[in-house]
Design goal:
130 residues; alpha/beta; 5-stranded mixed sheet; Glutaredoxin; globular
């Protein structure tokens, strides 16, 4: 995964801190609907939980530029990474979006959800990795 500037990141870079990993795209209505809750909880818990919002870039409907522009227009503060080769999506067997993985500080997947989350379900997943 890379950031908007092309810097590479791996999940292992964040070992020692619980991670919320979310796969999304700007053309996906359920993805867009859940993002305000992710942003809210990032604002509350971003110091203790690593949020990784992974934009699935297909080069047609979704590009790095489209995804970055969407995030900026909405004013979201969480970190966004881009999966331009679908390597992360493949590693996590993502078959539909949105898809969210709750990973503990040791790097183990505690739970995952395919489909739109609301704040209550998101908080519940986070409690499982704290």
């Amino acid at each position: 995964m890379t950031d908007e500037q092309g810097n590479a990141f791996r999940l292992s870079d964040f070992r020692g801190k619980p991670v919320v990993l979310n796969f999304w795209a700007s053309w996906c209505p359920p993805c867009k609907a859940e993002m305000p809750d992710f942003d809210k909880l990032y604002g509350e818990l971003g110091d203790e939980i690593q949020f990784m919002m992974i934009d699935l870039v297909d080069g047609r409907r979704e590009t790095v530029e489209i995804g970055a522009r969407f995030i900026q227009a909405q004013g979201y503060g969480f970190p966004v990474l881009f999966d331009t080769q679908y390597e992360a999506a493949s590693a996590y067997n993502v078959s539909g979006i949105p898809a969210t993985y709750f990973i503990d500080a040791q790097g183990y997947i505690v739970s995952n959800v395919t489909g739109q989350l609301n704040e209550t379900r998101l908080r519940g997943g986070i409690e499982g990795i704290r």
